[in-house]
TrEMBL record:
Keywords in alphabetical order: DNA-binding, Phosphoprotein, Transcription, Transcription regulation
Residues annotated as domain HTH araC/xylS-type: 379-477
Protein name as catalogued: Helix-turn-helix domain-containing protein
Key word Transcription regulation present: yes
UniProt keyword Acetylation present: no
Xref: Pfam families: HTH_18, Response_reg
Residue positions, PTM 4-aspartylphosphate: 55
Record-linked InterPro entries: CheY-like_superfamily, Homeodomain-like_sf, HTH_AraC, HTH_AraC-typ_CS, Sig_transdc_resp-reg_receiver, Tscrpt_reg_AraC-type_HTH
Coiled coil: none
Response regulatory domain residues: 3-120
Source species, domain of life: Bacteria
């Protein structure tokens, strides 16, 4: 609650003010009392109250001198000055030195006092919101520390330290939610904002974290109703334990991420190290082998779960893999990483996003050496060849695909590409064979089969005619 110091040399007046208001109901509490200005200054220096209700005329140090000394000490307590009808000159002086308001003792009642306290409360809340904005560099640095990434972009130690002073006595509930591609709203996270002084949100990497500030009170479970989505709560934290407690809230999401509530990992078959699987995935990608890429990627995902990767670590590894594959495909990684990785709210959906991206990249690689035409049926045939070159494709099958005559297809295909359909298909197969020779350890016989040739002798003959050397010579001369 906001704290109040009562300063009045007459005890019965202090008692009357104390009994005038139901302080707790309105968010305030009496933190202390003082009978004169010097006692009050000592109490202010120790307690740093939010509000000081002080008589102007007191022996020793009057209310105005108390206000001056408080401001000299750098303390921003709001002063409500009490005055008798004959002391208006003092009241005007108090306002000049920054008093919030002055009230007449004789007309003081709960309505008047509550009206002033309500206005002060709104000022204090607005001040807290402003200080809260200055905490975001701290949130960014802490998040970077949790992820193990650089923090230089959000350095602001001086501003953060100043702002943090306003929050050191407050209670912090940290609520983390797997929100996907867009930030979650407070109500979606089960938060009742009216139960807190301030609710801040921080969205990064597909998860939204809410920092919910309140006064140090007993734990109130009614503040938060767990939503119907993966969420984690660390209650009763503070800035001093921000990193540790934020990790705790995030780690509570891991069970939901893997689709299990219990923390122990299921027993699984022996899996190769993730580093070996990464290398294998890259090799399969360079071979344009989409089914094998899907198989290896699935093993990587199983290995992450078996190794108890957190959901953040899983996303970071997925982003790392996509960056490498995008680079190999000559694509900008930022086009691929953001939406697909951050929109995932489960281990399964993250794998689906990665597999979809791999398919798109492989299709891009297959098409990059191909010039499509202005004829839609010819383009459909080319696209079909790119996707099915490993199969036994006949011109009749291609004609049936686009519902035109075989002879007409051969004629129009030749006009638009300069090659017959079979010659065009051979080019696609030989280009794939060249990639496998350069980026795999497969035998020539295996490469012939994976490139769509049923006979390795025929493959060698076609390869030598089109490339000018045998597959083995091509591989040897390229230092593979």
């Amino acid at each position: 609650m906001w704290t109040v110091l009562l300063v009045e040399d007459e005890g019965f007046v202090r008692e009357a003010i104390r009994e005038t208001v139901d302080w707790g109901r309105h968010g305030f509490c009496i933190a202390g009392e003082a009978g004169n200005g010097r006692e009050a200054l000592a109490a202010i220096l120790e307690l740093k109250p939010d509000v000081v209700i002080a008589d102007i005329v007191m022996p020793g140090m009057d209310g105005i001198e108390l206000l001056k000394e408080t401001r000299k000490a750098g303390i921003r307590s709001r002063f409500i000055m009490l005055t008798a009808m004959s002391h208006f000159d003092y009241a005007r002086d108090a306002l000049q030195y920054g008093a919030f308001n002055y009230l007449l003792k004789l007309s003081l009642n709960d309505d008047v006092l509550l009206e002033n306290l309500a206005r002060i409360k709104e000022e204090l809340l607005e001040e807290l919101r402003g200080a809260g904005e200055a905490l975001y560099p701290l949130y960014h640095r802490t998040w970077s520390g949790i992820r193990g990434t650089s923090t230089s972009a959000h350095e602001d130690p001086a501003g953060t330290v100043t702002a943090a002073e306003k929050f050191r006595s407050l209670r912090l509930d940290i609520i983390a939610v797997l929100s996907g591609a867009v930030p979650a709203a407070a109500d979606q996270a089960g938060i009742r904002p009216e139960a807190y002084l301030l609710v801040q949100f921080f969205y990064e990497g597909g998860q939204t974290t809410f920092f919910c500030w309140s006064f140090q009170e007993k734990e109130d479970h009614a503040r938060w109703n767990k939503p119907n989505r993966p969420a984690g709560l660390t209650a009763g934290s503070s800035l001093a334990h921000l990193s540790q407690d934020w990790r705790s809230a995030l780690n509570q999401l891991n069970g939901d991420w893997y689709g299990r509530q219990a923390s122990p990992v299921k027993e699984r078959h022996e899996l190769p190290p993730i580093a070996e699987l990464e290398a294998e995935l890259i090799r399969c990608f360079e071979e344009r082998n989409e089914p094998k890429c899907a198989e290896v990627a699935t093993l990587i995902w199983e290995s992450m779960e078996a190794s108890s990767f957190s959901h953040m670590e899983a996303k970071m590894l997925a982003a790392h893999l996509l960056q490498i594959l995008a680079m190999l495909a000559g694509r900008k990684s930022e086009v691929l990483e953001g939406i697909s990785v951050n929109s995932a709210i489960s281990h399964e959906t993250l794998l689906a996003h990665v597999l979809q991206t791999i398919r798109e990249l492989i299709r891009h690689l297959k098409e990059e050496q191909v010039s499509f035409t202005d004829h839609p049926e010819v383009n459909r045939v080319i696209q079909y060849m790119l996707e099915h070159y490993q199969e036994n494709i006949k011109v009749a099958d291609l004609a049936k695909l686009v519902a035109i005559n075989v002879d007409y297809l051969s004629t129009v295909f030749g006009k638009k590409t300069g090659l017959t359909p079979i010659a065009y298909l051979q080019n696609i197969r030989i280009e794939q064979a060249k990639r496998l020779l350069l980026h795999s350890k497969l035998s020539v016989e295996e490469i012939a089969f994976q490139s769509g040739f049923a006979d390795d002798a025929y493959f060698i003959k076609v390869f030598k005619r089109m490339v000018g050397q045998t597959p083995s010579s091509f591989r040897r001369e390229n230092n593979i």
